[in-house]
Each structure stands twice: as structure tokens, then as C-alpha cells.
Design a protein that fits this description.
homodimer, alpha/beta, Isopropylmalate Dehydrogenase, 2 domains, ten-stranded mixed beta sheet, binds 3-isopropylmalic acid, oxidoreductase (chains A, B), 3-isopropylmalate dehydrogenase (chains A, B), isocitrate dehydrogenase (NAD+) activity (chains A, B), IsoPropMal-DH-like_dom (chains A, B)
């Protein structure tokens, strides 16, 4: 069976790291069909909208989507694309690699972020000249769904520490509901977990990341805590992510379009290639996923390095080294 | 003129570190009148409410309040107390001290956190069996007020880097309004600043804290980012804070009641004593404030240390060393 993969490079370094990931996938010879889609600042300039309907449909209908990055229009592109694949879970591993300078080398975390609601529900109003409101939406159904996904993910991937992040001492009813849903799911599945206030967790993750494994979070907490973890492992150039829906999924690096280095051919392709590895895993190619991850790990340890990691190699050099290591 | 200081130790180590701070203040002989108030878990157990009206009134009427910590009832105590002193600004310095093991020794940050609204407005509803909402409130007036305070604070304290944290790419109208207010105030006062998405900022603060100075934040972002900074400098035992209102103010350590070590006499009093120094500054005793800060700094550098900093000294040992160093 041929898998149809939507490929949306987007802006800036997206156009450099996505082709690198495709090269790696093609080397595995799995018979994927890649179909290109357009989105991002450059599309907005040309056509007045950052995410054309055809690109939305492409992602919605593909078996999986690889997305690079978008610039100023990032939110206009990625939020609808996440919706296009009906992705309720955003999975963000943050792992320190041997040989890469990390603030905390013992970091090996996976954030499982609720991906559909919270402050991302998009309900805002200017009530008066002075007052603006945003409605933070938390549902029991979405909270249960992310909890089920998170506990199962932890079990399937051998993590023994599961933490539920929240701020239920202030957001009593909304995060209270989130917490209750996690508690109910844990009870039904006989899962163990700890809960942590997200502010205290931010501190503890920095001081003792080795004490944590999978962190299940409401949407915005997951956004912040996963970027925090990027800081612990040496930056966004290393963090892949998966947006998982019931029938399809979208894979993207956590980094953005990096306009400061775009066009120079020196972007670190690791996060994008690791995102492709997450796609392989998701599609049932676990062996190949491990092969790709091992190759990237080997190159990070003693292969060529892009400038973000203190080297002077190009995107092409690193990609070639990964292909050699496969 | 005698200053009337409300003293609310609260729960756990609050009852150990607050007396330490009072000892230091008494040694300065400024003729303060200290009036005790009760709040916290133990009060809730005895009387059914964590914050009796008389304690609320005491804080509201005092010239300044010293608060220790509360346990399970923390939110029920501190949020109303902040309101009692009408505190619109929460000032949280996070500084690494020579001799104290810090993840990032170059950290010298001050978070200026909006203290009255955002998700802390307390407006939540269970709409259906499935749906719960929270209304995040952002007003132009409160945003302007915190921006004015933040820019003036940075100028008065010699910080050249000011950053406004936000998530206006997602919370477009609410954080959009916050950002616009900051921009307007900066324009009127000819202040310079950068803006940063709070997720990206979390990462950058960990990797390069030396690039930042004062960070002006909406309420929850300030809560998280200041705890993150605590992680960078070696934990909550070192972070003081001020809740500033137009006529009075409340000073508290960022740490909580630490039930795990409460009653052992080994709590680090530094954050509480440094909070008292912030009070001295606020009341116009700048020389004495500097004296206290210098004494604490000297003790942190080569005096006795409590267990949280790897030593085996008691709260009393550290307090005595600070008194000697005054
Ligand atoms: C671009 C933005 C909307 C997005 C988010 O907040 O989810 C980004 O920060 C991320 O984490 O992927
Ligand atoms: C106890 C809690 C309500 C409080 C807050 O969220 O403000 C605490 O985390 C703090 O930062 O002082």
C-alpha cells in the first residue's frame, strides 16, 4: 500500500530542512508518494492568505503531513493545519544527545500536550474600550482523550514517570476538570502519575529533569514547558514533534522559520529528520524510525555540526552524514 | 513616624523564616511596629476559613505587610491578601549569587508581573457536563499601569534590557491589547524594549539569561517565568518578591510552606530576609535595604548554609550570620 504524504515546507528554513528529511525518507525506499503543498508568509504575499484551502485539504486527506515552518503567519498556518488532521495530541520529545552541549544533559522528556482547546479555542472579545476577554475552554472529553493518549504513550514507550501539569489552584474549575479527567482515566487504566503545579514544575524541570518522564499538559502549558525543555537540551534545532489525530497526523519541528539564517543553507535538519522518524513510528515503520534516530544520534555525537551547535557544516553536509550513517 | 507592619507568617516554614526577617529588621532599629496576623491551613482548621477578615483588614490598613507562606490554602490566602493591598505589580528579582550553585550563574533578572487580572480574574463556569470555561480578562488600564511601573522600575534600577512577554500570536485580542498598551506607554516615555513570545522566551532565558533584564509579563506568564528563573539560580529559597499597591504593599518569598522540612528549623531564611529588604527599599530606607542585601550576599558566598544549598546549618545559624554581617 502506498502512503500519500503531504509535504508543506512553508517559509524560511522550512524550505531547507524539509527536503533534507525527504532525502532520508527516500533512502529508506518505502514507496511513499510525496505531494507538495504551499503555505506561509510567501503564500500570503502572493495570494492574500497564508493557508490556501487546497493545502488544508491536502493535509486533511493525506495519510500524514510533513510541515516545515512558517514565519509571521505561523499561527494562521499551523493552528488550522493541526485542525485539518484533527490532531488532539501534540507529542514533543525533548532529549539531550551525547556530544551536544546541553544545559541539562540528563534530560529525556516527552510532553503530551492537549492540542485543541484551552486558550487556543480562539474565543476573544473586545467588550469595552478598556476590557478584552478570552474564553479558555476545557472539556472533559478532550481532557480524557489526552489523558488516555498520554498514559498509553508512557506505557508503550517505557516511561515510568508520568506527571500531569496544571494550575488548578488558580484555574480551579477548568484545570480542576482537566485534573479530574486525568485522575479518572488513571483509575480506569490503573496508571500511576503525579500531579504538579505548572509553575513549580517549570522550576523542578530545570533543576532536576531526570526526575521526570512523560508530562501531560493543557495546551498553553505544553507550549511553554516544551520550549523550556528545548532550552535544557541545547535549543530548538533538536526538537521534533507529532500532531496526532485519529486517522492521520502532522509532523513538524518545534523550531520556526529562523529568518536570520534562512537561505544560507546552514539550518540544522535534525529536528525535521527526527520529526520524519516520528512519522515512521506512527505509520508502523518502527524499525526504520529507530534506524533514522540512531543515524541522527550518531551524527550529533561525532559528525558534522551546523552553526547552532557550534560547528560550520551545512544542512547538506549533515544530511549526507545521516544518509551515510543509515 | 512609626511604620505599622503587618506580619503574617502563615504555615510551615513561614513560621520559621518570618521571625528571622523580623530579627534582621529589629537590628536596624527603625522603630517599626509589628502587628501579627493569622492565615493559612492551620487557621482554616481552627476556624473554617484560611484568611479571617481581621487579617485581611490588618494587611489593608498596615503600611506594609510581611507574609511567609501558606500550605494547601495558598491561593485562598495570597490572592485576597494581594487584593487587600491593592497590589497591581508583583516584582520578582531572580539573581544568581556568588558561591551558590546555579544552573546559570549569569542570571540577573527582574520579573514585573501584572498582579490583578489575566486568568487570575477568577471567572469560571461549568457550562455543561462536558464544558467548563474560564474568562481571561485583560484591560487596557491594568496593562498600561504595569507597563508604566515596569519601564520606570527598569530605569530607576539601571536595567537597560526590557522585554515584554506575551502570546499575542494566539491570544490575539487580549495579549494584543497588553502589547499595545506597553507600546503606547513606551512611546510616551521614550522607553526602549523588545517583545518576546513567552514560549520562545522560556527557552532563551534558559540558554542566555544574560541577554535579559526586566521582563514585563501578564499574570500567569509572570508566575511561570519567575519560577523558571528560580530554577536557573538554584531554587526558590533565594527569591524574594514584592506586591506593590498605590498606598501599601506586601512582601513575600516566592517559595511556599515546604511541609517536607517544616518544623525542623532548617529552612533557608534568605528569600524572606531579601523580601524584607525589598520592603525597606519601598519604604524609603534604601541604605538599610542595601545593607541587608549585602549581608545576605556575603553569607551566601561564604557563611553557613542550609541544606537546600548543600550545607547543614540551621535557620538560626544563617540568621545570626546575617546579623553579624550587617
Ligand atoms: C506558532 C504557534 C501558534 C505555535 C503554538 O503556540 O502552538 C508554536 O509556538 C508551537 O508551539 O508550535
Ligand atoms: C499560590 C499561587 C496562587 C501563587 C500564584 O499563582 O500567584 C504562587 O504560585 C505565586 O507565584 O505566588
Amino acid at each position: 500500500m502506498t502512503h500519500r504524504i503531504a509535504v508543506i515546507p512553508g517559509d524560511g528554513i522550512g524550505g531547507e530542512v524539509v527536503p533534507a528529511a525527504i532525502e532520508v525518507l527516500e533512502a529508506l525506499d518505502l514507496g511513499f508518494e510525496f505531494v507538495d503543498g504551499e503555505a506561509g508568509d510567501y503564500v500570503k504575499e502572493e495570494r492574500g492568505e497564508a493557508l490556501p484551502q487546497e493545502t488544508y485539504d491536502l493535509a486533511a486527506e493525506a495519510d500524514a503531513t510533513l510541515f516545515g515552518a512558517a514565519g509571521e503567519t505561523a499561527a494562521d498556518v499551523i493552528l488550522p493545519l493541526r485542525e485539518a488532521v484533527d490532531s488532539f495530541a501534540n507529542v514533543r520529545p525533548a532529549r539531550a544527545y551525547p556530544g551536544v552541549d546541553a544545559v541539562k544533559p540528563a534530560t529525556d522528556l516527552v510532553f503530551v500536550r492537549e492540542n485543541t482547546e484551552g486558550v487556543y479555542a480562539g474565543i476573544e472579545d473586545d467588550l469595552t474600550d478598556d476590557v478584552t476577554t478570552l474564553t479558555r475552554l476545557i472539556t472533559e472529553s478532550a481532557s480524557r482523550r489526552i489523558a488516555e493518549f498520554g498514559f498509553e504513550y508512557a506505557e508503550a514507550n517505557g516511561f515510568s514517570d508520568v506527571t500531569v501539569a496544571h494550575k488548578a489552584n488558580v484555574m480551579r474549575k477548568t484545570d480542576g476538570r482537566f485534573l479530574e479527567a486525568c485522575e479518572a482515566v488513571a483509575g480506569e487504566g490503573d496508571y500511576e502519575y503525579d500531579e504538579a503545579l505548572m509553575d513549580a514544575l517549570a522550576m523542578h524541570l530545570i533543576m532536576h529533569p531526570e526526575d521526570y518522564g512523560v508530562v501531560i499538559c493543557p495546551n498553553l502549558a505544553g507550549d511553554m514547558l516544551s520550549d523550556l525543555a528545548a532550552g535544557l537540551v541545547g535549543g530548538l534545532g533538536l526538537l521534533p514533534s507529532a500532531n496526532i489525530g485519529p486517522d492521520n497526523a502532522l509532523f513538524e519541528p518545534v523550531h520556526g522559520s529562523a529568518p536570520d539564517i534562512a537561505g544560507e543553507g546552514i539550518a540544522n535538519p535534525a529536528a525535521m529528520i527526527l520529526s520524519a522518524a516520528m512519522m515512521l513510528d506512527h505509520m508502523g515503520y518502527g524499525g526504520e524510525a529507530t534506524q533514522v534516530r540512531d543515524a541522527v544520534t550518531a551524527v550529533l555525537e561525532d559528525g558534522p555540526r551546523t552553526p547552532d551547535l557550534g560547528g560550520d557544516a551545512s544542512t547538506a553536509d549533515v544530511t549526507e552524514a545521516v544518509l551515510d550513517a543509515l
